[in-house]
Write a structure and sequence with these properties.
Blueprint: E1 16-19, H1 21-24, H2 30-34, H3 37-43, E2 47-50, H4 84-97, E3 100-105, E4 109-111, H5 115-119, E5 141-143, H6 149-166, E6 170-173, H7 181-191, E7 198-201, E8 214-215, H8 218-228, H9 236-247, E9 253-256, H10 261-267, H11 270-274, H12 278-287, E10 291-295, H13 323-335, E11 347-351, E12 358-365, E13 368-375, E14 381-384, H14 385-388, E15 393-396, E16 402-404, E17 410-413, E18 418-423
Parallel strand pairs: 1-2, 1-10, 2-3, 3-6, 6-7, 7-8, 8-9, 9-10
Antiparallel strand pairs: 4-5, 11-12, 12-13, 13-18, 14-17, 15-16, 15-18
Helix pairs in contact: 6-7, 8-9
Length: 426
Protein backbone atom coordinates (compact mmCIF):
# COMPACT_ATOMS: atom_id res chain seq x y z
CA UNK A 1 0.00 0.00 0.00
CA UNK A 2 1.06 3.58 -0.60
CA UNK A 3 2.29 4.81 2.79
CA UNK A 4 0.85 8.27 2.16
CA UNK A 5 -2.74 7.01 2.34
CA UNK A 6 -3.92 4.58 4.99
CA UNK A 7 -7.48 3.29 5.46
CA UNK A 8 -9.37 4.49 8.50
CA UNK A 9 -9.00 1.87 11.22
CA UNK A 10 -12.75 1.40 11.70
CA UNK A 11 -13.16 -0.20 8.28
CA UNK A 12 -11.07 -3.35 8.81
CA UNK A 13 -13.67 -5.38 10.71
CA UNK A 14 -16.67 -3.65 9.18
CA UNK A 15 -19.11 -4.12 6.31
CA UNK A 16 -20.91 -1.98 3.72
CA UNK A 17 -24.65 -1.92 3.04
CA UNK A 18 -25.83 -0.34 -0.22
CA UNK A 19 -29.00 1.74 0.13
CA UNK A 20 -31.29 2.11 -2.88
CA UNK A 21 -33.52 4.91 -1.56
CA UNK A 22 -35.94 4.95 -4.48
CA UNK A 23 -36.88 1.29 -4.12
CA UNK A 24 -36.47 0.89 -0.36
CA UNK A 25 -39.87 2.19 0.77
CA UNK A 26 -43.16 3.09 -0.90
CA UNK A 27 -42.38 6.74 -0.12
CA UNK A 28 -38.81 6.44 -1.43
CA UNK A 29 -37.66 9.23 0.88
CA UNK A 30 -34.82 9.89 3.29
CA UNK A 31 -37.32 10.28 6.13
CA UNK A 32 -38.95 6.93 5.38
CA UNK A 33 -35.60 5.16 5.28
CA UNK A 34 -34.74 6.43 8.77
CA UNK A 35 -37.31 3.99 10.15
CA UNK A 36 -35.07 1.13 9.00
CA UNK A 37 -31.98 2.18 10.92
CA UNK A 38 -32.69 0.22 14.15
CA UNK A 39 -33.34 -2.99 12.19
CA UNK A 40 -30.16 -2.62 10.13
CA UNK A 41 -28.08 -1.86 13.21
CA UNK A 42 -29.47 -4.96 14.93
CA UNK A 43 -28.49 -6.96 11.84
CA UNK A 44 -24.90 -5.83 12.30
CA UNK A 45 -24.68 -3.28 9.50
CA UNK A 46 -22.02 -0.65 10.18
CA UNK A 47 -21.45 1.36 7.00
CA UNK A 48 -24.35 2.72 4.94
CA UNK A 49 -23.54 3.58 1.32
CA UNK A 50 -26.25 5.67 -0.33
CA UNK A 51 -26.59 5.49 -4.09
CA UNK A 52 -26.60 9.04 -5.51
CA UNK A 53 -29.07 11.28 -3.70
CA UNK A 54 -28.62 14.24 -6.07
CA UNK A 55 -31.26 15.55 -8.53
CA UNK A 56 -31.61 13.64 -11.80
CA UNK A 57 -31.49 15.30 -15.21
CA UNK A 58 -34.62 15.51 -17.35
CA UNK A 59 -32.99 15.93 -20.76
CA UNK A 60 -32.59 12.53 -22.48
CA UNK A 61 -33.80 10.85 -19.28
CA UNK A 62 -34.26 7.09 -19.48
CA UNK A 63 -37.48 5.69 -18.03
CA UNK A 64 -39.97 7.64 -15.96
CA UNK A 65 -37.57 8.65 -13.17
CA UNK A 66 -34.15 8.41 -14.81
CA UNK A 67 -30.82 7.14 -13.55
CA UNK A 68 -29.44 8.15 -10.16
CA UNK A 69 -26.13 8.47 -12.02
CA UNK A 70 -27.33 11.26 -14.34
CA UNK A 71 -26.86 14.17 -11.94
CA UNK A 72 -28.16 17.68 -12.63
CA UNK A 73 -26.72 19.38 -9.50
CA UNK A 74 -23.98 17.96 -7.28
CA UNK A 75 -24.80 19.99 -4.16
CA UNK A 76 -28.51 19.45 -3.65
CA UNK A 77 -30.83 16.51 -3.02
CA UNK A 78 -33.33 14.95 -5.40
CA UNK A 79 -36.65 16.48 -4.25
CA UNK A 80 -38.23 13.01 -4.57
CA UNK A 81 -35.99 11.99 -1.66
CA UNK A 82 -36.15 15.12 0.48
CA UNK A 83 -33.71 17.93 1.22
CA UNK A 84 -30.07 18.39 2.15
CA UNK A 85 -31.20 19.07 5.71
CA UNK A 86 -33.14 15.78 5.72
CA UNK A 87 -29.99 13.93 4.74
CA UNK A 88 -27.87 15.81 7.29
CA UNK A 89 -30.37 14.81 9.99
CA UNK A 90 -30.26 11.19 8.84
CA UNK A 91 -26.46 11.15 9.01
CA UNK A 92 -26.58 12.65 12.50
CA UNK A 93 -29.02 9.96 13.63
CA UNK A 94 -26.96 7.23 11.95
CA UNK A 95 -23.81 8.44 13.71
CA UNK A 96 -25.63 8.45 17.04
CA UNK A 97 -26.53 4.78 16.45
CA UNK A 98 -22.97 3.81 15.51
CA UNK A 99 -23.18 3.80 11.71
CA UNK A 100 -20.76 5.39 9.25
CA UNK A 101 -22.17 6.92 6.08
CA UNK A 102 -20.80 6.97 2.52
CA UNK A 103 -22.29 8.77 -0.44
CA UNK A 104 -21.88 8.03 -4.13
CA UNK A 105 -19.70 10.50 -6.05
CA UNK A 106 -20.33 10.36 -9.80
CA UNK A 107 -17.29 12.25 -11.02
CA UNK A 108 -16.95 11.04 -14.61
CA UNK A 109 -20.13 12.44 -16.12
CA UNK A 110 -23.27 14.49 -15.53
CA UNK A 111 -26.74 14.74 -17.01
CA UNK A 112 -27.13 16.72 -20.22
CA UNK A 113 -28.90 19.48 -18.28
CA UNK A 114 -26.56 19.72 -15.30
CA UNK A 115 -26.20 23.31 -14.13
CA UNK A 116 -22.54 23.27 -15.21
CA UNK A 117 -23.53 22.88 -18.87
CA UNK A 118 -24.83 26.43 -18.61
CA UNK A 119 -22.51 27.91 -15.99
CA UNK A 120 -19.25 26.15 -16.93
CA UNK A 121 -19.39 24.48 -20.33
CA UNK A 122 -15.58 24.43 -20.29
CA UNK A 123 -15.80 21.64 -17.70
CA UNK A 124 -16.92 19.17 -20.40
CA UNK A 125 -15.27 17.16 -23.13
CA UNK A 126 -16.36 17.99 -26.66
CA UNK A 127 -16.52 15.77 -29.72
CA UNK A 128 -15.19 16.63 -33.20
CA UNK A 129 -18.31 18.71 -33.81
CA UNK A 130 -17.73 20.73 -30.64
CA UNK A 131 -20.68 19.12 -28.84
CA UNK A 132 -21.07 17.49 -25.44
CA UNK A 133 -20.85 13.71 -25.69
CA UNK A 134 -20.26 10.43 -23.89
CA UNK A 135 -17.83 7.85 -25.34
CA UNK A 136 -19.25 4.87 -23.44
CA UNK A 137 -22.64 4.60 -25.10
CA UNK A 138 -24.57 6.03 -22.14
CA UNK A 139 -27.20 8.18 -23.80
CA UNK A 140 -28.35 10.11 -20.70
CA UNK A 141 -24.95 11.52 -19.60
CA UNK A 142 -22.00 13.54 -20.92
CA UNK A 143 -18.30 13.39 -20.06
CA UNK A 144 -16.41 15.81 -17.85
CA UNK A 145 -12.92 17.05 -18.78
CA UNK A 146 -10.31 16.63 -16.04
CA UNK A 147 -7.72 18.52 -18.04
CA UNK A 148 -9.57 21.61 -16.81
CA UNK A 149 -8.18 22.85 -13.43
CA UNK A 150 -11.44 24.59 -12.66
CA UNK A 151 -13.36 21.31 -12.89
CA UNK A 152 -10.91 19.55 -10.58
CA UNK A 153 -11.32 22.28 -7.97
CA UNK A 154 -15.10 22.29 -8.37
CA UNK A 155 -15.38 18.51 -7.92
CA UNK A 156 -13.25 18.63 -4.79
CA UNK A 157 -15.50 21.41 -3.53
CA UNK A 158 -18.49 19.11 -4.16
CA UNK A 159 -17.03 16.46 -1.88
CA UNK A 160 -16.07 19.07 0.69
CA UNK A 161 -19.68 20.31 0.68
CA UNK A 162 -21.02 16.88 1.68
CA UNK A 163 -18.34 16.54 4.36
CA UNK A 164 -19.04 19.93 5.90
CA UNK A 165 -22.82 20.04 5.46
CA UNK A 166 -23.64 16.40 6.27
CA UNK A 167 -20.50 15.04 7.96
CA UNK A 168 -20.23 12.00 5.66
CA UNK A 169 -17.52 9.45 6.44
CA UNK A 170 -16.35 8.61 2.95
CA UNK A 171 -17.10 8.23 -0.71
CA UNK A 172 -17.96 5.41 -3.07
CA UNK A 173 -16.61 6.72 -6.35
CA UNK A 174 -18.60 5.64 -9.39
CA UNK A 175 -16.60 4.28 -12.36
CA UNK A 176 -13.48 5.59 -10.67
CA UNK A 177 -11.15 4.26 -13.39
CA UNK A 178 -12.72 6.62 -15.96
CA UNK A 179 -11.46 9.59 -13.93
CA UNK A 180 -7.68 10.21 -14.02
CA UNK A 181 -5.86 8.85 -10.98
CA UNK A 182 -4.00 12.16 -10.36
CA UNK A 183 -7.35 13.85 -9.72
CA UNK A 184 -8.28 11.32 -7.04
CA UNK A 185 -4.88 11.83 -5.44
CA UNK A 186 -5.42 15.59 -5.45
CA UNK A 187 -8.89 15.13 -3.93
CA UNK A 188 -7.69 12.87 -1.16
CA UNK A 189 -4.80 15.16 -0.29
CA UNK A 190 -7.23 18.05 -0.03
CA UNK A 191 -9.96 16.30 1.98
CA UNK A 192 -8.30 13.79 4.31
CA UNK A 193 -6.79 16.56 6.49
CA UNK A 194 -10.33 17.82 7.14
CA UNK A 195 -11.54 14.40 8.27
CA UNK A 196 -10.12 10.89 7.74
CA UNK A 197 -12.37 9.24 5.15
CA UNK A 198 -12.96 5.81 3.65
CA UNK A 199 -12.40 5.81 -0.13
CA UNK A 200 -14.05 3.03 -2.15
CA UNK A 201 -13.44 2.88 -5.91
CA UNK A 202 -15.87 1.20 -8.25
CA UNK A 203 -13.09 -0.32 -10.32
CA UNK A 204 -10.75 -3.31 -10.32
CA UNK A 205 -7.60 -1.55 -11.53
CA UNK A 206 -4.56 -2.33 -9.41
CA UNK A 207 -3.05 1.14 -9.87
CA UNK A 208 -6.03 2.81 -8.21
CA UNK A 209 -4.92 1.38 -4.87
CA UNK A 210 -2.26 4.09 -4.92
CA UNK A 211 -5.08 6.35 -3.72
CA UNK A 212 -8.13 4.25 -2.86
CA UNK A 213 -8.57 2.08 0.22
CA UNK A 214 -10.74 -0.55 -1.48
CA UNK A 215 -11.84 -1.71 -4.92
CA UNK A 216 -14.40 -4.10 -6.40
CA UNK A 217 -14.19 -7.83 -7.22
CA UNK A 218 -16.15 -8.53 -10.39
CA UNK A 219 -13.66 -11.21 -11.42
CA UNK A 220 -14.63 -13.25 -8.38
CA UNK A 221 -18.35 -12.60 -8.86
CA UNK A 222 -18.20 -13.91 -12.42
CA UNK A 223 -16.12 -16.90 -11.34
CA UNK A 224 -18.69 -17.69 -8.65
CA UNK A 225 -21.37 -17.60 -11.33
CA UNK A 226 -19.29 -19.99 -13.43
CA UNK A 227 -18.96 -22.39 -10.49
CA UNK A 228 -22.75 -22.41 -10.05
CA UNK A 229 -23.25 -23.02 -13.78
CA UNK A 230 -20.56 -25.75 -13.65
CA UNK A 231 -18.54 -23.94 -16.29
CA UNK A 232 -15.58 -24.15 -13.94
CA UNK A 233 -14.80 -26.48 -10.99
CA UNK A 234 -14.86 -25.23 -7.41
CA UNK A 235 -11.09 -24.93 -7.25
CA UNK A 236 -11.38 -22.40 -10.09
CA UNK A 237 -12.10 -19.88 -7.34
CA UNK A 238 -8.46 -20.16 -6.30
CA UNK A 239 -7.18 -18.63 -9.53
CA UNK A 240 -9.06 -15.37 -8.93
CA UNK A 241 -8.46 -15.24 -5.18
CA UNK A 242 -4.74 -15.87 -5.70
CA UNK A 243 -4.72 -13.09 -8.29
CA UNK A 244 -6.09 -10.69 -5.69
CA UNK A 245 -3.61 -11.87 -3.07
CA UNK A 246 -0.50 -11.77 -5.27
CA UNK A 247 -1.05 -9.00 -7.82
CA UNK A 248 -2.58 -6.32 -5.62
CA UNK A 249 -0.52 -4.31 -3.10
CA UNK A 250 -0.11 -5.80 0.35
CA UNK A 251 -2.93 -4.59 2.54
CA UNK A 252 -5.14 -3.56 -0.39
CA UNK A 253 -8.78 -4.00 0.63
CA UNK A 254 -11.20 -5.74 -1.70
CA UNK A 255 -14.99 -5.52 -1.49
CA UNK A 256 -16.76 -8.86 -2.03
CA UNK A 257 -20.42 -9.19 -3.04
CA UNK A 258 -23.01 -11.53 -4.51
CA UNK A 259 -25.16 -8.67 -5.76
CA UNK A 260 -25.42 -4.89 -6.08
CA UNK A 261 -27.65 -2.42 -7.92
CA UNK A 262 -26.05 -3.04 -11.33
CA UNK A 263 -26.00 -6.82 -11.05
CA UNK A 264 -29.54 -7.02 -9.73
CA UNK A 265 -31.16 -4.72 -12.27
CA UNK A 266 -29.19 -5.71 -15.35
CA UNK A 267 -28.13 -9.33 -14.76
CA UNK A 268 -30.61 -10.67 -12.21
CA UNK A 269 -30.90 -11.32 -8.51
CA UNK A 270 -28.25 -13.35 -6.72
CA UNK A 271 -30.57 -16.35 -6.87
CA UNK A 272 -30.86 -16.05 -10.65
CA UNK A 273 -27.09 -15.83 -11.06
CA UNK A 274 -25.86 -18.06 -8.21
CA UNK A 275 -28.86 -20.30 -7.61
CA UNK A 276 -28.79 -22.54 -4.56
CA UNK A 277 -25.15 -21.58 -3.97
CA UNK A 278 -25.99 -17.91 -3.27
CA UNK A 279 -25.86 -18.19 0.52
CA UNK A 280 -22.67 -20.26 0.56
CA UNK A 281 -21.04 -17.63 -1.64
CA UNK A 282 -22.34 -14.96 0.76
CA UNK A 283 -20.51 -16.74 3.57
CA UNK A 284 -17.35 -16.64 1.44
CA UNK A 285 -17.80 -12.90 0.88
CA UNK A 286 -18.24 -12.29 4.61
CA UNK A 287 -15.31 -14.40 5.80
CA UNK A 288 -12.57 -14.09 3.17
CA UNK A 289 -9.94 -11.39 3.66
CA UNK A 290 -11.85 -8.30 2.56
CA UNK A 291 -15.04 -6.35 3.17
CA UNK A 292 -18.54 -7.69 2.49
CA UNK A 293 -20.92 -5.53 0.49
CA UNK A 294 -24.64 -6.23 1.06
CA UNK A 295 -27.33 -4.80 -1.20
CA UNK A 296 -30.76 -3.50 -0.20
CA UNK A 297 -33.19 -6.38 0.25
CA UNK A 298 -30.55 -9.11 0.54
CA UNK A 299 -31.83 -9.74 4.07
CA UNK A 300 -35.36 -10.42 2.80
CA UNK A 301 -34.09 -12.05 0.56
CA UNK A 302 -35.17 -10.09 -2.51
CA UNK A 303 -35.39 -12.41 -5.51
CA UNK A 304 -36.65 -10.00 -8.17
CA UNK A 305 -34.84 -7.68 -10.53
CA UNK A 306 -35.51 -4.12 -9.41
CA UNK A 307 -36.20 -1.68 -12.22
CA UNK A 308 -33.39 0.82 -12.56
CA UNK A 309 -35.11 3.82 -14.16
CA UNK A 310 -38.61 3.50 -12.65
CA UNK A 311 -40.25 3.03 -9.27
CA UNK A 312 -40.16 -0.63 -8.23
CA UNK A 313 -40.34 -1.07 -4.46
CA UNK A 314 -38.67 -4.04 -2.79
CA UNK A 315 -41.42 -6.48 -1.78
CA UNK A 316 -40.77 -6.41 1.95
CA UNK A 317 -42.73 -9.08 3.81
CA UNK A 318 -41.68 -8.11 7.32
CA UNK A 319 -40.04 -11.50 7.87
CA UNK A 320 -36.42 -10.65 7.01
CA UNK A 321 -35.51 -14.31 6.64
CA UNK A 322 -31.77 -13.61 6.29
CA UNK A 323 -31.57 -11.14 9.18
CA UNK A 324 -30.21 -13.72 11.62
CA UNK A 325 -27.86 -15.13 8.94
CA UNK A 326 -26.21 -11.74 8.51
CA UNK A 327 -26.41 -10.89 12.21
CA UNK A 328 -24.32 -13.95 13.01
CA UNK A 329 -21.82 -13.48 10.19
CA UNK A 330 -21.31 -9.77 10.72
CA UNK A 331 -21.15 -10.20 14.48
CA UNK A 332 -18.40 -12.79 14.05
CA UNK A 333 -16.47 -10.44 11.74
CA UNK A 334 -16.73 -7.69 14.32
CA UNK A 335 -15.66 -9.63 17.38
CA UNK A 336 -13.08 -12.06 16.00
CA UNK A 337 -9.68 -10.60 15.00
CA UNK A 338 -9.10 -13.59 12.72
CA UNK A 339 -11.57 -12.08 10.23
CA UNK A 340 -9.99 -8.63 10.17
CA UNK A 341 -9.45 -7.49 6.59
CA UNK A 342 -6.16 -6.44 5.11
CA UNK A 343 -3.95 -9.43 5.85
CA UNK A 344 -1.60 -7.57 8.19
CA UNK A 345 -2.89 -8.94 11.49
CA UNK A 346 -4.95 -11.94 10.32
CA UNK A 347 -3.62 -14.68 8.06
CA UNK A 348 -5.54 -16.87 5.63
CA UNK A 349 -4.80 -20.51 4.87
CA UNK A 350 -6.55 -22.47 2.14
CA UNK A 351 -7.42 -26.00 3.32
CA UNK A 352 -7.40 -28.54 0.48
CA UNK A 353 -9.56 -31.61 0.98
CA UNK A 354 -10.43 -34.63 -1.16
CA UNK A 355 -14.04 -33.56 -1.65
CA UNK A 356 -13.77 -31.59 -4.91
CA UNK A 357 -16.96 -29.64 -4.23
CA UNK A 358 -15.77 -28.42 -0.84
CA UNK A 359 -14.03 -25.06 -0.57
CA UNK A 360 -12.33 -24.72 2.80
CA UNK A 361 -10.05 -22.21 4.47
CA UNK A 362 -8.91 -20.97 7.89
CA UNK A 363 -8.38 -17.43 9.17
CA UNK A 364 -6.03 -16.95 12.12
CA UNK A 365 -4.84 -14.15 14.36
CA UNK A 366 -2.87 -15.18 17.42
CA UNK A 367 -5.03 -17.68 19.30
CA UNK A 368 -8.15 -16.70 17.39
CA UNK A 369 -9.20 -18.91 14.50
CA UNK A 370 -12.17 -19.32 12.17
CA UNK A 371 -12.50 -22.30 9.82
CA UNK A 372 -14.96 -22.13 6.90
CA UNK A 373 -16.29 -25.13 4.94
CA UNK A 374 -18.49 -24.47 1.89
CA UNK A 375 -20.39 -27.18 0.03
CA UNK A 376 -20.93 -26.36 -3.64
CA UNK A 377 -22.92 -29.46 -4.49
CA UNK A 378 -26.44 -30.84 -4.10
CA UNK A 379 -25.31 -33.70 -1.86
CA UNK A 380 -24.03 -33.95 1.69
CA UNK A 381 -20.25 -33.68 2.09
CA UNK A 382 -18.24 -35.32 4.83
CA UNK A 383 -14.79 -33.90 5.46
CA UNK A 384 -12.31 -35.91 7.48
CA UNK A 385 -10.31 -34.21 10.19
CA UNK A 386 -7.29 -36.12 8.96
CA UNK A 387 -7.36 -33.51 6.19
CA UNK A 388 -8.29 -30.45 8.26
CA UNK A 389 -5.88 -31.34 11.10
CA UNK A 390 -7.87 -29.44 13.72
CA UNK A 391 -7.08 -30.28 17.34
CA UNK A 392 -9.13 -27.87 19.44
CA UNK A 393 -12.79 -27.30 20.25
CA UNK A 394 -14.82 -25.16 17.84
CA UNK A 395 -18.37 -23.82 17.90
CA UNK A 396 -20.33 -23.81 14.66
CA UNK A 397 -21.70 -20.30 14.14
CA UNK A 398 -25.18 -21.06 12.83
CA UNK A 399 -26.13 -24.13 14.89
CA UNK A 400 -24.10 -23.64 18.06
CA UNK A 401 -22.86 -27.22 17.75
CA UNK A 402 -19.60 -27.89 19.60
CA UNK A 403 -16.96 -29.87 17.73
CA UNK A 404 -14.12 -31.21 19.83
CA UNK A 405 -11.56 -32.24 17.23
CA UNK A 406 -9.44 -34.06 19.78
CA UNK A 407 -12.25 -36.61 19.52
CA UNK A 408 -14.25 -35.79 16.37
CA UNK A 409 -13.19 -37.63 13.23
CA UNK A 410 -15.08 -35.69 10.60
CA UNK A 411 -17.66 -33.00 9.90
CA UNK A 412 -20.60 -33.07 7.50
CA UNK A 413 -21.95 -30.12 5.51
CA UNK A 414 -25.45 -30.02 4.01
CA UNK A 415 -26.14 -29.59 0.25
CA UNK A 416 -25.19 -26.07 -0.85
CA UNK A 417 -24.50 -25.46 2.83
CA UNK A 418 -21.75 -24.09 4.97
CA UNK A 419 -20.08 -24.56 8.33
CA UNK A 420 -18.31 -21.69 10.06
CA UNK A 421 -16.26 -22.91 13.00
CA UNK A 422 -14.97 -20.50 15.62
CA UNK A 423 -12.21 -21.75 17.88
CA UNK A 424 -13.34 -21.95 21.48
CA UNK A 425 -10.91 -20.15 23.74
CA UNK A 426 -10.46 -20.89 27.41
Amino acid sequence: MNEVFRPVDWIYSSNVYEVNLRQYTPEGTIAAFRRELPRLRDMGIEVLWFMPITPIGKERRIGSLGSYYACSDYVSVNPEFGTVDDFADLVKEAHRMGFRVLIDIVANHTAWDHRWTREHPEYYRLNAEGKFYDPNGWEDVIDLNYDNPGLRKAMIDVMRFWMEKCDVDGFRCDMAMLVPLPFWREARQALDPIKPLFWLAECEEIAYHEVFDATYTWKLLHRMEDVWKKVTPVDGLDEVLNYYDTKFPAGALRVFFTTNHDENSHSGSEYERLGAAADAFEVLCCTWSGLPLIYSGRELPNTKRLKFFDKDVIDWTGRYEKHRFFQLLLGLRKRNPALRAGGEEATLHRLFVKEENCFAFARRSGEDEVVVLLNFSDGWLTVSNTELLLVDAYDELFTGTRFDFSKAKDISVSPWGYAVLEKKKG
